[in-house]
Description:
Blueprint: E1 3-7, E2 10-14, H1 16-22, H2 27-36, E3 65-71, H3 77-80, H4 85-89, H5 97-100, E4 124-127, E5 132-135, H6 139-143, E6 148-155, H7 161-170, H8 180-188, E7 198-202, E8 228-230, H9 248-269, H10 272-295, H11 302-308, H12 318-330, E9 335-340, H13 349-373, E10 380-385, E11 389-390, E12 407-408, E13 412-417, E14 425-427, E15 429-430, E16 437-439, E17 442-443, H14 444-454, E18 464-466, E19 469-471
Parallel strand pairs: 3-9, 3-10, 6-14, 6-17, 7-8, 7-9
Antiparallel strand pairs: 1-2, 4-5, 6-13, 10-13, 11-12, 15-16, 18-19
Amino acid sequence: MNQSFKFSGSTTQLTRRHFFSRASTGLGTAALAHMLGTYPAQAGGPAGSPAGVLSGFHLPPRAKRVIYLFMSGGPSQIDLWDYKPMLSEKQGEQLPDSVRQGQRLTGMSANQASLPLAGSTFKFRQHGRAGTWVSELLPHTAKVVDQLCVLRSMHTEAINHDPAITFFQTGSQIAGRPSIGSWLSYGLGSANKNLPDFCVLLTKNKGGQPLYARLWGSGFLASGHQGVEFRAGRDPVLYLNNPAGISATARRKMLDRLGQLHQLEYQRSLDPSVEARIAQYEMAFRMQSSVPAVTDLTNEPDHIFDLYGPDARNPGTFAANCLLARRLAEQDVRFIQLFHRGWDQHGNLPAGIATQCRETDQPAAALIQDLQQRGMLDETLVVWGGEFGRTCYSQGKLTADNYGRDHHPRCFTMWLAGGGVRPGLVHGATDPFGYNLTENPVHVHDLHATMLHLLGIDHEKLTYKFQGRRYRLTDVFGNVVHDLLA
Length: 486
């Protein structure tokens, strides 16, 4: 649509974007506010009203930010959280058909001649006011269990890693949708001016299932909403530093001139991607000073390093990343995602999961304690979990001291802390075999809906129209789990 319109005696060539930009004030703005159904920010919520697409919160927010500790590979709930003594009593016996109920298996165990039940080799004890069962592998987490809301009844449809991880990060098993951090950036905008809304920290030197940048990508949202990956080493964010011979003054002058050229292009085309590009250039310039400051851990006192454990002084470890996550939270980064790989124990599970817990147990518990002692836990939602659980039967040969477990999407355990969730709660239950849910199931979409609710967002109202359809993080279903709320 290119038509000529006369304004004050002159003829101006208008594109469709120009036409709607001129018509977007007045009743259009009022209609938009009505459709979004938003309300002003509540006292104590994120700083000021949201600066994203939402003009305000849908409901009073309980959390300002999220720190998501993603255990990639699928931790075995039967060896960590879901105590099943019957499995040890029936060690080596076949999984009953009445329990399996014809449910599908992965290609890795579907061809096994037998499915022998495998009890955990690790001891469990009850901890905290609720008597929550916790494995001996998690002694530090057991000490903070009264701050945790343990979800024993998580379930998902995905049975293989890539679609399962994609589902948890984007609300869809199919790649291409915006990640949860991108949705928050789009909806609420930034609470700080010098760091990205969405930061991603990967544990270095960890093998396991691959992690792709699309897991923290913005999908069909503007590229400015994608997660920014932080790395260990001299350059925490790639391509941020000036090339050799380029001073900060020269860089500033270059960006000013480039910004002028982009403004000319934007006035011509009204293409929002041009404005997004300008904003990203400016953010990168500010990050040249803000990133080195936030990633420099040398000013942390010794007792904080001791709290997070011996790996905390080694950049890029899970412990160092947990400490960095707390520092990013202090700078009001909206969504902080930590990935720790290696939880995919199809064999040699006892030794493998013990290593994983040594790397993650103390730092995760320390993060809870550190946030609490700084008065930040109540406004920070911490999430821990993987993409699915593990089977109650052994994949491969079962021996007295060795076994493996296959993928199990039917039931698994996650935990939440802070940010408006009920502390000391154990929600949901599984059957004595740890194979099927028996109480209060929580689906991936339910978890996402609850997380958004705690951040002041109605998950059905934060949408984006793309290719003729309105998309949302929770796709077409999902319910807030009110029992989890404090």
